[in-house]
Amino acid sequence: MFAIFVLLFVASLADLTLQAEEWSYGEENRWPGVCTVGRHQSPINIMSQDTVLDMNQVHIRGPLIFRGYRNVELVASNNGHTLQWDAVRGDEAPIISGGPLRGNYTFLQFHFHWLSEHAIDGMKYPLEVHLVHIKTGLTMEEAMERSDGLAVIGVFFMVNRGYESAYALEQLTPVVPYIKNSHQNQTESRKYDLGRIVSYEPQSYYTYKGSLTTPLCQEIVTWIVMDKPLFITADQYRLFTNVDVGGAFNYRSLQPLNNRVVYRSIASCASLLAPTLPGTLLSLISCLSSNVFSKSFGAVWNIKQKLFGNSIKNNV
After folding, report:
1. Active-site residue, 81 included
2. Which of 75, 86, 77 lies closest to 1 in space, CA to CA?
3. How far apart are CA 262 and CA 131, in angstroms?
4. Which superkingdom (predicted)?
5. Does 21 map to a domain?
6. Which of 73, 111, 271, 282 could be joined to 82 by an S-S link, Cβ 3.0–4.6 Å?
7. Identified catalytic residue from 81, 118, 130, 133
8. Each residue of 176-190: pLDDT tens digit?
9. Beta carbons of 221 and 42 less than 8 angstroms apart
């Protein structure tokens, strides 16, 4: 089954950005839409000590409920900005509900960012996946007009040695060489177990109201950021850093919090596996091959701007 069977509203809107012009991560100040003027933008730096533990379940009402994530038919592609896996027509689509969500949300696609887009206590992870869901029953046009139109799950990845670290991305990495270049076509559809990339503790997370992290940056997203990272191998991470997405990295700068409240679930205990600066930098240096490192050296030096610049100060 080929990409012709991709859900029509996903295929027609590509990567959910709806932008009318080209954009790049190197020119964020020129992004269209509300990207430069919005007050509830994403990603953000999540300061764990400033988050609100929702003991009374006022905002987080019960556990997150995942249905149908174990055997999902997807097609993979390179849209010029990221590697993306889209749901295709077939069996009943995965659904998420509960937690901070009011109602059901239907899975649309997942895609990757390297480095991570969100930061925890000022530090980033080597890789982050976003699982995008639309409020069930809405068209994409309708979802774009609602503050709760989309729900996105963010999951971090840390580089680690050992065969067991390959498990989370084991089904995905064989496809990456076929979509390495931005001009390559979508792959044939195949079944994937999305449970591998959600989290091993899916009830432990942060949540806040934010935006898409690509143009037009609509502020319609309920973010659920898992605080327990998954592990990947150096070889797996190297695959992503060799992908053509218009640059060495594909993450947006951190955005001001602007008095928003970030809640954390009762199960959250982020300090156990928080990233460190040496760990993040060593992951980058050890995983970048020589040909990628040459073009990424400047980007690595610019990490200070995006990890520790004014945007973080504004978040605290």
Report:
1. yes
2. 75
3. 19
4. Eukaryota
5. no
6. 111
7. 81
8. 999 998 877 778 899
9. yes
